[in-house]
Specification:
The protein contains 13 helices and 15 strands. The strands form four sheets. The protein has a seven-stranded mixed beta sheet, sandwiched between helices. The chain has two domains: 247 residues, Type I PLP-dependent aspartate aminotransferase-like (Major domain) (Aspartate Aminotransferase, domain 2); 124 residues, Aspartate Aminotransferase, domain 1 (Alpha-Beta Complex). The structure holds pyridoxal-5'-phosphate. Pyridoxal-5'-phosphate (PLP) binds next to helix 3 and helix 4. The site of pyridoxal-5'-phosphate has 14 residues, from helix 3 and helix 4.
Length: 385
């Protein structure tokens, strides 16, 4: 079976993890800070804070920016549910901004209109979470300028986009955001099995992220409310969580990071071949902006509207021929849980139209030419015969 995505673990990755297993530290040792520095350095951000998943990074990022009951957070309906759930964890309300049909990313036009309406109704969001779908950055400069006008903070959900660039800078540099979050789940660009990272350029934000990921506890004297009682002493200053990354995960992530550029180059190579060879098929590609270098976490194509073969039929046909394709994503607002909060079909028409047309075809760095040829051939049979 050809999967839609898969990790690539080398002997060097395995050795890096084994070395940690034999060391004194399985958690809270030197590898996590080393991984954090390496990611901050790669992304040209000042700071990075590792967590045990992108979901927990999104949660502490919202908390660090002060999201709580009575606040609104806005994100894209075409994302994994974690992009929206993080607001609800904080007791805040979630709302969505419809997508741009060409890129699948948050529409800046829809955002501008929604902000204007929200300003009139006095219900502006505290935080906006743009999601870089498939590895292509959103139009961050426009989103940032809009957010500045209304004093709104920004968290980039870059779970798909480590190794990507926007306006010649690495995604994660936070030039147009407060915090950027990455995921190292095995299906993403590089993996630490489970794991996440938040980058930022603000020392106070970093401190907040670090404290929240570890029970709200500090052992730094300068943060304590009274003199230390002794070497065992620590203080809990707020309600935090155990969202720490282990040393094993950090070692794997660090080792994988060495091949990040190679992975992204290979993904781009495979994507370019898809782009050329699928152009004759009755499908559309997600439009790529000249401002962006995508890390191509996913290769998403869209079937023409009302085409004789629907997405369900196509995905089943491909599976019968040993190819796993997928669909990213079911619009979040149509999930039963979100519908129970009052969202309904028709709320975000572009996201819903996209859902009827999109499919994700296989793309991963170890994909061979034979595998890619097979995907292209089977797609051709299904769509063109
Ligand atoms: C994978 C993903 C997440 C969650 O990542 P985890 O590391 O599995 O918690 C969040 N947002 C998006 C867009 C994702 O693709």
């Amino acid at each position: 079976m050809i999967p839609y995505g898969r990790q690539d673990i080398s002997q060097q990755d395995i050795d890096a993890v084994l070395e940690v297993l034999k060391s004194d530290w399985l958690t809270q040792g030197p590898k996590v800070p080393e991984f954090e520095h390496a990611i901050a350095n790669y992304c040209q951000a000042t700071y990075a804070c590792a967590t045990n998943s992108a979901t927990s990074a999104l949660h502490v990022a919202c908390l660090a920016l002060g999201v709580g009951p009575g606040d609104y957070v806005w994100t894209s309906p075409i994302s994994f549910v974690a992009s929206a759930n993080c607001a609800l964890y904080c007791g805040a309300q979630i709302d969505f901004v419809d997508i741009d049909l060409d890129t699948g990313n948050m529409s800046t036009e829809a955002l501008a209109i929604k902000l204007e309406q929200a300003a009139q109704q006095d219900c502006l969001p505290k935080v906006i979470i743009p999601v870089h779908l498939a590895g292509q950055s959103c139009d961050m400069e426009t989103i940032y300028n809009l957010a500045q006008r209304y004093n709104i903070r920004i968290i980039e959900d870059a779970s798909h986009a480590i190794g990507a660039k926007y306006k010649n800078k690495p995604v994660g540099c936070c030039e147009f955001s407060d915090i950027t979050v990455f995921s190292f789940h095995p299906v993403k660009i590089i993996t630490s099995a489970e794991g996440g990272m938040a980058t930022c350029n603000d020392a106070a934000l970093l401190k907040s992220l670090q404290r929240l990921r570890s029970h709200g506890i500090t052992n730094k004297q300068e943060e304590m409310t009274e003199p230390s009682h002794g070497p065992w002493y620590y203080q809990q200053l707020e309600l935090g969580y155990n969202y720490r990354m282990t040393e094993l995960q950090a070692a794997l992530g660090l080792s994988q990071l060495q091949r990040l550029d190679e992975f992204v180059a290979r993904r781009n190579q495979l994507a370019a071949i898809y782009y050329t060879r699928l152009s004759e098929f009755p499908i559309e590609h997600l439009q790529q902006s000249e401002d962006c270098l995508s890390s191509y976490h996913l290769y998403i194509v869209k079937l023409q509207e009302n085409f004789k073969v629907g997405h369900n039929q196509l995905i089943c046909l491909l599976r019968e021929h040993g190819i796993t394709s997928h669909l990213h994503y079911i619009p979040i607002h149509l999930q039963p849980f979100y519908q129970s909060m009052g969202f309904k079909a028709g709320d975000f028409p572009n996201a819903e139209a996209y859902y009827q047309q999109a499919i994700t075809i296989p793309l991963y760095p170890t994909m061979t030419s034979e595998e890619q040829n097979k995907v292209i051939a089977e797609l051709g049979k299904a769509l063109c015969d």
